[in-house]
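Record type: monomer structure entry
Structure origin: computed from sequence
Chain ID: A
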Amino acid sequence: MGQWPGAGHKVESWAKGDASPVSAADLAVDGFLKAELGRLLPSAGWLSEETADDPVRLDRDLIWVVDPIDGTRDFIHGRSGWAVSVALVSAGRPLLGLLVAPARDEVWSATAGTGARLNGVEISASKRRIFPGARVPAEVLADEDHDLALVERPNSIALRIAMVADNRADLVATLRWGFEWDVAAATLIAREAGARVSDAFGQALAYNKRDPRAFGLLVSAPAIHDDAVERLAGRAKLLS
């Protein structure tokens, strides 16, 4: 059991088969969003971390891609680094993206082609041009990355991506297999804010794939993206 101080209630939580945490709140939010978004667009497919995957989604023109609570560890332990992530995807690309971080009083949103916003105010991504010194939301850095700078790291990968969108960080990088629901909304927000987005090898991300995973993620100021790909190339090849 965890404790969420802001709500004053105990949070029922347990480990899933892959040892990642899940809480009763994850399932409740998932059920609520599936019902409400289903009423909004009955013909849209559904892909969520907390719902068994149904391959019928592959035949749908529109699909909701949802992580009901991204950053469950922070949620369970009463920290603020979690968010609800919702994206609407068409033809493999996000059209709408929404991150709601209630513990931070933050609502991030984007519509393809119209820019990104935080609490209704337009935001612009980092414009850093020099790779050394780039701000990275992480707890520790590898020895070969000692020339980068640590900043706050929320548990939610979506919020870390949003930090690049709002110029609170210059680079987010992962070198592991990740799921579409973790990043669909946040990568649209980052791209609409002016950031550059790719997988660990610098290739474009696609959504609503049969296997809803990609290896690694790079979200950064545009001018340092190629440097980031080069820096991580050896590690990405080894780990993938």
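Annotation 1: The radius of gyration is 17 Å.
Annotation 2: The helical segments are 24-40, 72-76, 157-165, 180-193, 225-239.
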